[in-house]
Amino acid sequence: MTNLKRRDFLTKSAFGTAAVGAAAGAAVFATPHIARAQESFNWKMTNAYGPGSPFYVTGPGSPEDFCKRVTEMSSGRLNIQHFAAGELIPALEGFDAVQAGTVEMNAANAYFWAGKIFAAQYFTTVPFGLNFQGMNAWLYHAGGLELWHELYQPYGLIAFPMGNTGVQMTGWFRDPIESLDDFNGLKMRIPGLAGKVYQQIGVEVKLLPGGEIFPALERGVIDAAEFVGPYQDRRLGLQKAAKYYYTTGWHEPSNVTELLINQKAWESLPADLQAIVKNAAQACNLDSHSWCEANNAAALRDLVENQGVIAQTLPDDVVNKLKGITKETLEAEAAKDPLTKKVHDAFMAFRDTHREWAAVSEKPYHGIISSKDGMS
To answer: Mean pLDDT across the stretch 266-295?
Structure first.
């Protein structure tokens, strides 16, 4: 072999050896990432609502739908087994179960945890607060979600919005409401911040799971009850226990379904699976609200026209009094804790800003453009 050929051979061999070595090194380096990307996870999700509940358990945008979406989007790498209330744990023990790592996820409403974290309620709804559009704007684009995570971080939890009913009805009453005096001594099922407001006008507040509302109302254990809206309320049969159905939506202008996740479990997921969970939750947030909007109108018409329900708004003086008490109650609670005040101030600042836009967008639309007068 000539010197030139020998040099060519040695050079090519050296480059070949280096290339092979580099490729092998790259393969070794990449293997953990490939293995992590292919790793599969089997999780459990509990729920605060009973088996078969539309929106809260089953149907478009529901927790069961969310689990199905995640499985399909991840090609089976993340499988989430769903358990309705009572199937694995009692209805309102999801927070503790996820915190302890007994299950990885829970579906509920954050205001159920008010006894542990007062400010959690701001991430479900606030009386006289934000509607569906405003709530999503605050959570996704104005710092709300980051505050939610900050609030739950000491508990080893993380949360995302996974649904929204939109505006809810004030509730069902066995007797008509004509003045503030009619609330004094009234026993009412009502969760969240609205319960604290009602207490200021003499209401005896009860917190009951959805499945217990009808029998309590029918037997007179409670005199009034709030649940969701026409479709959901009719399914529970509340119209058979009370005929006076009031609205304004003062107490829940929107209502967020909470996807609660154990922080350590969340951090164990590869980035692509985390992205799938977040995007599936956001898709369900939109789809669930769309489903509610599509079903409530026909349900309300049926209740009024076929089932003898008397639907009307609360008297103006009652609403105005409740508005004043809400402001006082929230400010008093916010003053007790720095983090609650931080959440409160951020929420209210965004609410006031969003109202300026709503006053020239949604308000004229609902008051003028969508009015039935002159059009049918």
So the answer is: 98
Distance CA 343, CA 351 (A): 12
Quickly tell me which residue has 């969340």 as its tokens.
266
| Beta carbons within 10 angstroms of residue 240's beta carbon | 13
According to DSSP, the residues that pair with 256 across neighbouring strands are 164
How far is the C-alpha of 207 from the C-alpha of 119, rounded, in Å? Answer: 18
SS3 81: strand
Instruction: Please give the C-alpha separations between residue 161 and each of 42, 120, 164, 258, 285, in angstroms, as whole numbers.
Output: 22, 13, 8, 5, 6
pLDDT digits (tens, 9 = 90+) for 85-124: 999 999 999 999 999 999 999 999 999 999 999 999 999 9
**DSSP characters over 104-168:** SEEEE-GGGGTTT-GGGGGGT--TT---HHHHHHHHHHSSHHHHHHHHHGGGTEEEEEEEE--S-
Q: Cβ contacts of residue 85 below 8 Å, gap of 6+?
A: 46, 47, 48, 49, 50, 51, 91, 209, 211
The DSSP line for 308-349 is --EEEEPPHHHHHHHHHHHHHHHHHHHTT-HHHHHHHHHHHH
- pLDDT tens readout for residues 141-185: 999 999 999 999 999 999 999 999 999 999 999 999 999 999 999
Cβ(162)–Cβ(257) under 8 Å? yes
Bridge-based pairing of strands 78-83 and 171-173 is: unpaired
Q: Does residue 308 contact residue 242 with C-beta atoms inside 8 Å?
A: no
Tell me the whole-structure pTM to 2 decimals. 0.85
CA distance 280 to 284: 6
Strand partners, 257: 163
**Could you tell me which of 98, 120, 110 has the C-alpha nearest to residue 162?**
110
Interior angle at CA 142, CA 119 and CA 346, nearest 5: 40
For the record, the structure tokens of 11 come out as 């050079």
To which residue do tokens 């999700």 refer? 45
For residue 227, give the nearest of 370, 52, 55, 350 by alpha carbon.
55
Tally of CA atoms within 13 A in the half-sphere of 294 that contains its CB: 10
Task: Reduce the DSSP state of residue 53 to 3 states and report it.
Answer: coil
| Inter-helix orientation angle 63-73/271-306, to 10° | 150
Rounded to 5°, the CA angle 51-55-59 comes to 80
Query: In the block, which residue shows the tokens 């009031």?
Result: 246
Check residues 22 and 315 and name the one with the higher pLDDT: 315
